Amino acid sequence: xxxxxxxxxxxxxxxxxxxxxxxxxxxxxxxxxxxxxxxxxxxxxxxxxxxxxxxxxxxxxxxxxxxxxxxxxxxxxxxxxxxxxxxxxxxxxxxxxxxxxxxxxxxxxxxxxxxxxxxxxxxxxxxxxxxxxxxxxxxxxxxxxxxxxxxxxxxxxxxxxxxxxxxxxxxxxxxxxxxxxxxxxxxxxxxxxxxxxxxxxxxxxxxxxxxxxxxxxx
Length: 218
Fold this sequence. Notes:
Layout: E1 2-6, H1 13-24, E2 27-30, H2 32-44, H3 52-60, H4 64-71, H5 79-89, H6 92-107, E3 120-124, H7 127-131, E4 137-142, H8 145-158, H9 165-181, E5 194-197, H10 203-217
Parallel strand pairs: 1-3, 1-4, 2-3, 4-5
Helix pairs in contact: 1-10, 2-4, 2-5, 3-6, 5-9, 8-9
């Protein structure tokens, strides 16, 4: 079984994906990690994030091992690196370079320990439209920019990162605009995606609704 969960930043995709992964014994692939890895690698090396040819080269040479190593860096999930990821993800050549890695995971999904999974669940921006258009279930999770900024602000506070709420909101709005207007794979629901607005729903309600929809069609 393949499930895709797309949507803007801080909409609740990751939490939903993790819950569904545990429920249905699916391997979880956050495709945003690939872009965060490229963005952070370039930043750590002092490279220009606007250099598409250089970003493409970083993407072509990215391995799963390198991605997971970078993910342990405290800056990996930072708001700043989220902006870096958004910048490189808007580049068609970077997306093309990372697409095969993302698609291959569905052919032979495995858990972090290397054991085989019964399927895969994808969390990203274009997993239902580009990465796995053949997915059995497609969700598009969204929420208002203000709600998403508040969630991300709280998350950063809990991690000890004192980023002003206004700055977080500004980053969210800017990322939304880049994701919607990029020339390759703009952020939008797949035609057959189930749209879930989480602005006024807690995660338990979102997970329950998603499971009901999946179980009804299996």
